[in-house]
User: What shape does this take?
Amino acid sequence: MDSEWSDNQPIWRQIRDRVVAMILDGHLAPGDPLPSVRAAATDSRVNPLTVLKAYQQLADDGLVEKRRGLGMFVNAGARELLLDAERRRFLTEQWPEIEATIRRLGLAEDLLGARARPKGE
Assistant: This one.
């Protein structure tokens, strides 16, 4: 994992988001193990409790499961859960701002017009 952190979010949240991205991008598939807490903490140069908090959030979200003595593993269906949640989050949180910027810059007709117009016009 990359060890450059933003000041905009807690580090545990950024670690969680990076694991989510790895699942969405197909770098982690169902049944794949997550890096151990110690390995992830060492690679990221953060406290192991920070990584543990990120992993616990992933488990609470139903994306990974802890196998006693073995570590954390990606659950079956995790990618589908994430796609649904990330699509909803994008459409409610990010898209309105993007759309407003597109309209503000006068790009709406070029970028949005083709989708908004009914076929045949």
User: Anything to note?
Assistant: Helices lie at 11-24, 37-44, 48-60, 78-104, 108-111, 113-116. The chain has six helices and two strands.
